[in-house]
């Protein structure tokens, strides 16, 4: 029997686990104690159940409605080709899927791969790329430690996830083509409706408040009144900044919100406009 709770699939243990759980917890959801072998955990104050699974299995479980939504790498969603929708991008686990070859080999474009053997755990994504580019290569599917394949003579090249690039370097490989960029995504079943849809909307509302907060900072500063107009243009805030007169004549205090991405640029300009006593404070939740 379906409990009516929204079922969320997350990776049991791996690169996505901690950030997925942080997102759920920062959304104000308290879960029943998770033991080491626990497969399911229920929300104590919100109608959800969290299912702990291998990341490879998450697209299938969501497509089959065993879970309603899941947090998983986009690469797994592309590879598994299950009928699910990507509904959000929480902004972590960014990486790329790339082709890499031994450093000792010369690379002169995609035709290099014609007639070569490529080891990968992502055969479908690779096959699609090769077909689109009319390259005839042999795909050798392996499930782990793909990077050692060329060194032991199993393949001429690899197609694998790269983030810092250090795994490639330590295996004397070089990245020659980026095929796909990936990050963690929230996927949803296509059959969510009624009360579950309502729970999902509430959850996404909370998740956005958490993510917005992470991307923004609260900023307070003192500014000479003659610069206020220019400073306001730099710091639109959520509606417009709050401005209060200071006891010292000709000066005001200004409060606003600034986006992490433009942060240093804006601070520099504020200083040029005569702003002083700038305080920057993290935001815990932000509802826009
Ligand atoms: O047990 P389970 O099947 O659940 O986990 P898993 O071992 O299959 O996956 P896991 O935890 O390794 O990765 C989960 C997801 O994290 C992936 O599907 C990607 O979406 C994402 N991700 C982000 C990464 C990386 N960065 C990453 N660097 N997944 C794997 N790697 C590996 C890569 O395979 C290579 O071996 O790290 C190595 C490369 O890293 P650099 O930094 O040396 O370039
Ligand atoms: Zn996996």
Account of the protein in words:
The protein is 27% helix and 31% strand. The chain has helices at 17-26, 58-63, 74-80, 123-132, 166-170, 194-215, 228-234, 263-272, and strands at 6-11, 40-42, 48-53, 69-73, 85-88, 95-102, 117-120, 138-141, 157-162, 173-182, 184-188, 216-224, 242-245, 251-259, 276-282. With 288 residues, the protein is of the alpha/beta class. It has three domains: 6-92 and 184-213, 3-Layer(aba) Sandwich (D-Maltodextrin-Binding Protein, domain 2), CATH 3.40.190; 95-181, Periplasmic binding protein-like II (D-Maltodextrin-Binding Protein, domain 2, 3-Layer(aba) Sandwich); 216-282, Alpha-Beta Plaits (2-Layer Sandwich). Bound molecules: phosphoribosyl ATP and zinc ion. Phosphoribosyl ATP (PRT) is lined by residues 11, 14-16, 54-56, 73, 75-76, 93, 95, 147, 160-167, 182.
Topology:
Blueprint: E1 6-11, H1 17-26, E2 40-42, E3 48-53, H2 58-63, E4 69-73, H3 74-80, E5 85-88, E6 95-102, E7 117-120, H4 123-132, E8 138-141, E9 157-162, H5 166-170, E10 173-182, E11 184-188, H6 194-215, E12 216-224, H7 228-234, E13 242-245, E14 251-259, H8 263-272, E15 276-282
Parallel strand pairs: 1-3, 1-4, 7-8, 7-9
Antiparallel strand pairs: 2-3, 4-11, 5-11, 6-9, 6-10, 12-14, 12-15, 13-14
Bound molecules: phosphoribosyl ATP and zinc ion.
Brief synopsis:
The protein is of the alpha/beta class. The protein has helices at 17-26, 58-63, 74-80, 123-132, 166-170, 194-215, 228-234, 263-272, and strands at residues 6-11, 40-42, 48-53, 69-73, 85-88, 95-102, 117-120, 138-141, 157-162, 173-182, 184-188, 216-224, 242-245, 251-259, 276-282.
């Amino acid at each position: 029997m379906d409990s009516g709770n929204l079922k969320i699939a997350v990776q049991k243990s791996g690169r996505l686990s901690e950030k997925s759980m942080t997102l759920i917890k920062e959304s104000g959801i308290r879960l029943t104690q998770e033991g080491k072998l626990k497969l399911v955990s229920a929300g104590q104050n919100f109608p959800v159940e969290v299912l702990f699974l291998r990341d490879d299995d998450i697209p299938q479980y969501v497509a089959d409605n065993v879970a309603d939504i899941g947090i998983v790498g986009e690469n797994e969603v592309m590879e598994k080709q299950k009928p699910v929708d990507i509904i959000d991008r929480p902004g972590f686990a960014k990486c790329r899927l790339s082709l890499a070859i031994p450093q000792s080999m010369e690379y002169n474009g995609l035709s290099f791969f014609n007639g070569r053997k490529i080891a990968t755990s992502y055969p479908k994504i690779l096959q699609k790329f090769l077909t689109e580019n009319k390259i005839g290569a042999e795909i050798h599917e392996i499930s782990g430690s793909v990077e050692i394949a060329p060194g032991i003579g199993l393949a001429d090249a690899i197609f694998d996830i790269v983030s810092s690039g250090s795994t490639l370097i330590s295996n004397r490989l070089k990245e020659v083509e980026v095929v796909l960029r990936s990050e963690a995504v929230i996927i949803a079943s296509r059959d969510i409706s009624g009360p579950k849809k309502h729970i999902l909307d509430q959850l996404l509302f909370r998740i956005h408040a958490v993510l917005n907060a992470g991307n923004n900072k609260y900023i307070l500063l003192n500014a000479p009144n003659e610069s206020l107009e220019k400073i306001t243009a730099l710091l639109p805030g959520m509606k417009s900044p709050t401005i209060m007169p200071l006891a010292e004549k000709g000066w005001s205090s200004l409060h606003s919100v600034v986006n992490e991405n433009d942060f240093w640029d804006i601070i520099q300009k504020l200083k040029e406009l005569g702003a002083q006593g700038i305080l920057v404070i993290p935001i815990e939740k932000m509802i826009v």
